[in-house]
Write a structure and sequence with these properties.
heterodimer, A: two-stranded antiparallel sheet, 10 helices, 72% helix, disordered N terminus, B: mainly alpha, two-stranded antiparallel sheet, 14 helices, 77% helix, 2% strand
């Protein structure tokens, strides 16, 4: 949401061209993510998870409200990145924006895979997720890693908001449904499994579209959540992930 | 005075204060606000049993409230059943749903639990919106009859006030009792460490589902009462925002404090009335409240005030001792 709205803001209000607007929007979203981590999450490092959850929920409501105040309740459409003329590929009609979305998604997947599996920082981050105390023992700065992970996820999140905005339009309250569906996709695929998440996202989109076609379009969002509940009930570790035992 | 006696006294004073309040109020506006505070208190207490005592978050509690309201609304308007009977029916219905989904949902923890309850809430909300022939869809359901005992109809604000508050006080009393029973202690043990609680022989899984069911039962009663006092309901009152508002009430008032729930409900009901002119500001303020209270007053306002009072008392004591 922030990504889409900020891009719109720079593009239309300041009259900047598309590319710098996008970069600025991502930068600002990242800074917002880092600020949130610094101000609200870090001071409560040892708090019970339920407090952290309530705080993240509070923050997301707050940002949504702030965006509504600053930009109003109207929905805005971003211009497509490269025109609106549909392309015809083997009898299928595709908007150029779809291709942009595919390309950027694939890029992000590859980049995150490389980052998490082959760079020192990425490996350190995974170590923190696995066990923060041991990670700090081997010399990883857990604080920096947590901050970085907030930054990365804010940046990717805003990127997603930007590339989808030309199709779905953007407004102060698009984030919540998108965010929830993102979470659905992650849970379907299994936490911290890059490829699983992508497959989860694809599966979710497909089932939703099929459900909308066969049952009723008005229940489209309900279908996503029914799938979410079913997955959580029967395979909480995700469809594509091996079961892990939890230690206390 | 023993602890129990003091608690009974506090409750009696609290109840008496509420029961005589209407005599000091002019006009129906304030009574109306107080009726809302009563309904919200009932809901906040119900959620507090789950969130504050057992430590399990629910972002879908508005759904149970809505289920109570809609079951009451539909059965009384379309089938002309007796409203009192329907209230019990609705509560049992919501409790049954909570019991059935409770087992798989409460196995989850943390963000997963938040997401699952949220998902449940949204599914119910979509059903309210889409089953137009039953619920009237987004434009709502009207003409729900007021409650009555014999020929005595609860159709003015004063009667509604007493109706709602007597039931709310009963709910509060039950919850206070529950929280101090063996079950209450077991729930707090689950809150602190589920594994440790299980090691001590507490059946955490069943207990969590039971408290979830009780919580849904109370929420549904609140929903039915809401439907009968307002005589009109629309899905917008039972959406995600309201679930968040409920969590805010519990957190602001104090996790695990029944009077805290009353305080939280009162503050969050009165606040929007004051913020009328900043229409739409309320959601930002809820967000900020959630963050700030959680960061600086993890026990909520009630325990925040208590510790302030203790500090003040300690200072006074120190002073007198110093003088002597």
């Amino acid at each position: 949401m922030l990504g889409g709205m900020l891009t719109f803001f720079f593009l239309v209000i300041f009259g900047l061209p598309l590319a710098p607007s996008i970069i600025l929007a991502i930068l600002i979203s990242t800074i917002v993510g880092i600020t949130f981590e610094r101000l609200a999450i870090r001071p409560l490092k040892n708090a019970k998870p339920i407090r952290l959850i309530i705080i993240t929920i509070g923050a997301s409501i707050f940002m949504r409200g702030a965006a509504m105040l600053i930009w109003g309740k109207d929905t805005h459409a971003l211009p497509a990145f490269s025109g609106n003329d549909p392309l015809y590929i083997a009898q299928a009609t595709i908007l150029p924006q779809h291709l942009w979305i595919f390309a950027i998604t694939i890029l992000i997947i590859i980049a995150s895979r490389l980052f998490f599996n082959h760079s020192i920082i990425g490996k350190a981050m995974r170590a923190c997720a696995y066990n923060a105390q041991v990670a700090s023992l081997v010399g990883i700065d857990v604080k920096i890693m947590v901050m970085l992970s907030f930054a990365v996820s804010a940046a990717i999140g805003s990127m997603a908001g930007i590339i989808i905005a030309p199709l779905t339009m953007t407004s102060y309250d698009v984030g919540i449904m998108l965010g929830l569906k993102g979470f659905c996709a992650v849970i379907i695929g299994g936490m911290s499994s890059g490829l699983g998440t992508v497959l989860g996202g694809l599966l979710l989109g497909l089932l939703e579209a099929l459900g909308a076609g066969f049952i009723s379009a008005s229940y489209k969002d309900a279908i996503a959540f029914i799938i979410l509940l079913l997955i959580l009930f029967f395979r909480p570790e995700g469809l594509f992930k091996k079961k892990e035992t939890e230690r206390v | 005075m023993t602890k129990e006696k003091r608690q009974i006294l506090i409750f009696l004073i609290f109840a008496l204060a509420l029961l005589i309040t209407p005599f000091f109020l002019q006009g129906s506006y304030y009574l109306n606000v107080l009726v809302f505070i009563g309904i919200h208190t009932m809901l906040a207490v119900a959620l507090n049993l789950l969130l504050g005592y057992a430590g399990q978050i629910s972002l879908g509690h508005a759904a149970f409230f809505g289920l109570g309201a809609y079951i009451s609304g539909i059965l009384t308007t379309r089938f002309s059943l007796d409203p009192w009977l329907v209230i019990v029916l609705a509560a049992v219905c919501a409790a049954t749903i909570a019991f059935v989904i409770g087992f798989p949902i409460l196995k989850l923890k943390g963000h997963y639990l938040a997401m699952a309850t949220l998902g449940f809430g949204i599914i119910i909300y979509i059903i309210f919106n889409e089953t137009v022939s039953w619920t009237g869809g987004p434009s709502g359901l009207s003409g729900i009859p007021s409650l009555h005992i014999g020929s005595w109809i609860f159709d003015n604000d004063l009667y509604n006030y007493y109706l709602i508050w007597i039931i709310t006080l009963a709910v509060m009393l039950l919850s206070i009792n529950l929280s101090q029973s063996r079950i209450g202690r077991a729930l707090r043990a689950i809150h602190d460490s589920e594994v440790a609680a299980r090691v001590m022989g507490i059946n955490a899984r069943v207990l969590k589902v039971q408290i979830f069911t009780v919580s849904a039962f109370i929420s549904a009663i609140a929903g039915s009462l809401y439907a009968h006092t307002m005589t009109f309901i629309a899905p917008a009152s039972f959406g995600f925002n309201f679930s968040v508002e409920l969590v805010t009430m519990v957190v602001v008032g104090g996790l695990g404090s029944i009077y805290g729930s009353f305080l939280g409900a009162a503050i969050l009901t009165i606040l929007p009335e004051f913020l009328r002119f900043f229409h739409d500001f309320d959601i930002i303020i809820y967000g900020l409240l959630l963050i700030i209270i959680n960061m600086f007053m993890p026990g909520g306002l009630i325990s925040g005030l208590q510790s302030l009072a203790e500090i003040a008392a300690a200072k006074m004591k120190g002073k007198t001792r110093g003088d002597a």
